[in-house]
Design brief:
This is Peptide/nickel transport system permease protein. Pfam families: BPD_transp_1 (PF00528), BPD_transp_1_N (PF19300). This protein is mostly helical. It has a domain of 178 residues: MetI-like fold (Orthogonal Bundle), CATH 1.10.3720.10. The protein is 79% helix and 0% strand.
């Protein structure tokens, strides 16, 4: 319990530091909000002063940051400089598509990556060579290129899946987001499959596994209870890292498949210097990454009780 509390406090500190970096980084970027608001028109100093006062740009930097942070903690991310919409409402309308896509891709990574890695480790021969070749291909093929290939083959030529839009309703969303999810998950599946295969192979040669087999324990029980469980620590780390990065890499897929997610919104907002929207999306990504890392740390203790015992002793 104490360890969980420490991790939550650490996550809160990371979010606080990240919020300061996100807020200050946007103001250090070329251009300024007032320059965007006047759209290159020549305005009098009085008008510019009114604009700065309206958006709080005439306050000291730390005051602006504090006011912004307090508003964020109350769920208020400000207003979009481009659409004049509430940022929370704007992001909320786009977030379900990205979350559905990232969750779909995460499920593919877990089942396909771990499953293929385990099968490759337990079955030598042609199947193992195919998995190794596929993992090498996953390392080499960029996400955007994978998306284009999937769109051309399974969308345009075969017509099995749509190549644009996110769909309506659960079933329709799955149909529309299958190709984007596969393209998004493909590199991570390759990494997880390779790490899983290596971890299981190493565990198969460990002393306790050899002794279990020598005692006549059925291979199925040895595989599940001894080999897989003890090989899952490095696999869990890789899974957490790749799943946490899905939100950050989703913008490439959303742009390719013209999806209405926060990734495509982030790209448009950066191009148009819509500071409030960029700051909100950046914080969401930092929060998602931190939460997933926290879950991975907690899973360590579930997978290996020795990790939990070590943490209790250190605490």
């Amino acid at each position: 319990m104490l360890y969980v509390l420490k991790r939550i406090i650490a996550l809160a500190l990371v979010l606080l530091v990240s919020s300061f970096i996100v807020f200050s980084g946007m103001y250090l970027a070329p251009g300024s909000p007032e320059q965007f608001l006047v759209q290159g028109r020549t305005v009098t100093p009085e008008v510019l002063e009114v604009i700065r006062a309206q958006y709080g740009l005439d306050d000291p930097f730390l005051v602006r940051y504090w006011n912004w942070l307090v508003d964020v903690l109350h769920g208020d991310f400000g207003r979009s400089l481009v659409t004049q919409q509430d940022v929370s409402t704007l992001v909320e309308s786009r977030l379900p598509t990205t979350l559905f896509l990232a969750t779909y891709a995460a499920i593919l990574i877990v089942f396909a990556g771990v499953g293929l890695g385990v099968l490759a480790a337990t079955r030598s021969g042609a199947f193992e060579k195919i998995v190794v070749f596929g993992s090498n291909l996953g390392f080499a093929v960029p996400t955007f290129f994978a998306a284009l290939v999937l769109m051309a083959v399974f969308g345009s030529n075969l017509g099995w899946f749509p190549v644009s839009g996110s769909g309506e309703g659960f079933t329709d969303r799955i149909w529309h987001l299958t190709l984007p999810a596969i393209a998004l998950a493909f590199p991570a599946i390759a990494v997880v499959a390779r790490i899983t295969r290596t971890a299981v192979r190493e565990e198969q040669g460990s002393e306790h596994v050899v002794m279990a087999i020598a005692r006549g324990v059925p291979k199925r029980i040895v595989l599940g209870r001894h080999t897989l469980r003890n090989s899952m620590l490095p696999v869990t780390t890789v899974l957490g890292t790749n799943i946490a990065g899905l939100l950050a890499s989703a913008f490439v897929i959303e742009y390719a498949f013209t999806l209405d997610g926060i990734g495509s919104l982030l790209v448009n907002s950066v191009q148009k210097k819509d500071f409030a929207v960029v700051q909100a999306i950046a914080l969401i990504m930092v929060l998602a990454f931190g939460l997933i890392n926290l879950i991975v740390d907690l899973l360590y203790a579930v997978i290996d009780p020795r990790v939990r015992l070590a943490r209790e002793v250190s605490a």
